[in-house]
Amino acid sequence: QQQQQPPPETSGGDRYGVFLDLNGGSGLTGENKADVWQRLLTQCNRLLKEAARTVSSEFNSDVWREVSQCDKGKAYFKGVLEVYRVAMRLQATLTHNAFSNEAKQLAALLADTKKNWQAYVAAAQAAKLEVPQSNVNFNATAPTPDRSLACGVCLLPATSDAALDAAAVNTSRLAAFGRMYHANCANLWHNLVDKDLPTLSPV
Fold first, then answer.
1. Which is more confidently placed, 189 or 70?
2. Which of 50, 59, 127, 194 shows the smallest number of beta carbons within 10 Å?
């Protein structure tokens, strides 16, 4: 019998860990918030849809349990969680600006992102697979008006949220181009959207 291979690494955990390479990148200037967040949410949505489709594939429960215990499998599932955490940071920012043009423009995309996350979790449960989940509700955290503290991507305070979420893969932050960033916000943007990081302003 032919041995089935693990699912593709569509969102490997290493992409959202330590931010290693800023060579050739720079800070974007004059960017539009709605455009930045739409581009990032589009990638989050795509990855979560791929993850739901992957977990719904022909692999049986025994294969999935084996995959979930190997290093590549663990990195894959943790990476999926980190993608959703980035999306939920953006949701928190938009929730605190519910009547803004950005919130209105991105409401449907956020709804699709959450729907694809729920489809992924449901598929994992159907496969009797325990995937990492955690506190992905950042709505109690408001965007900070302090530019020196705000993440240049999501505008929430770029501080470690380990106390909020012990299951988080990466709660670190980094400094680049005169701004602070959540490591996973910066990595997701850099690896999947653009090598140049956004430097969004709170105001």
1. 189
2. 194
